[in-house]
Structures are given as structure tokens and as C-alpha cells.
Description:
The chain is mostly beta strands. It is built from no helices and 13 strands. InterPro entries: Glyco_hydro_28, Pectin_lyas_fold, Pectin_lyase_fold/virulence.
Amino acid sequence: MGSCSNIHISNTNIGTRDDCIVILSGTTNLDISNVKCGSVHGISVGSLGKNKDEKDVKHLTVRDTVFNGTSDDIRIKTGESSASIIVVTNFIYENIQMIELENRSTLIRSIALTHLVNMKKGESHVQIQDIKLKNIYGTSKNIVAVNLQCSKSFPCKNVELIDINLKHTGLEKDHSKAMCENVDGSVRGRMVSQHCLD
């Protein structure tokens, strides 16, 4: 969905061969709750910034939701060498269960705020800021359960991780991990995987 405002999606099961829900340019005030997602991917924002005249994406809430066997459950994706300079802001992800998360490299790939970077084309010019992830729990087959990759030119700002409990169930005999790049944020409460924010 794109260029939408004041939308509420709730109490539904979604199973597709792609994303459960895709959120595109110009979407504001979107509330998603009590959704069960069993698709290939989870709830994705973007890709953003690739086209001219794109609009900001603001005020998204995802809560009380279950992802079962998906990859990239929570994802914000921006394009390299952006044609638009836009802001992605005021997102809350809360009370979310992830069952056997399967990220490929993995708010982010289990939780994925991912700015795609191409050395020839340049970095993303989409500003991601004011993102809160609270009470995210469950299991991940990939050892990297939280992957925050942001643009050097437009680093992610004010990313809050609160009570993230994602246990690794894959073949590697180790705890789940987090990876961060160009992210300003904070951590509170319990953290499994080990966090990567100061």
C-alpha cells in the first residue's frame, strides 16, 4: 500500500508467496495488530527512495503479531543512490513473536533496517529515525537475529531496542547475534541476542 493514511489492519491471517504487507511511499498513520503472518517475508516498508517525488512514511504501529517461518520479519528497505530524499519516522513494533525466523543474511534482517549500499551507485538518502522495537521474542534459525545496516550519509537515528529475546536454533552452536552499522540508538531491558548499540 502507498499514499494511504489512517488505515487499520487487524485480526487476520496472511499467507502469500511474498510479503505479508508492503508499505510504500506516502503512507502515514497505519496501525497493524493481531496479524498472523506465514508468508515468505513479513511486514516490509519499501523499497523507498528509488523514484522521484516519493513522500515521507510516518507513524506506523505493528503490535501483537506473530510471524511463523518467515524471513526478514520486520524490514525497512531503502534503495541505493536515492532519487528522493525522504524521512521514515515514528515507527513502533511491539509484542511480536517470531517462530523459526529464517533470514537470508540474517529492524534491519530478522529485525531489519536495511539500507542497500552499492559502491558504484552510492548510498541511500532516506533518513530513518525514531524507531522503537519492544518485546520482540521467539526463535531464529540464523545466528544474526538483528541486523541494522544504515547509510553512512544518512545514519539511522534514535533506534530503541527494548526487551529483544530471539534465541538461536540453527546449526551454529552459539547465541544469536546483532549487527549494526551507522546506527544511533539505545538498548533497555533483556537482550538476546547480544546488542551492538552503545
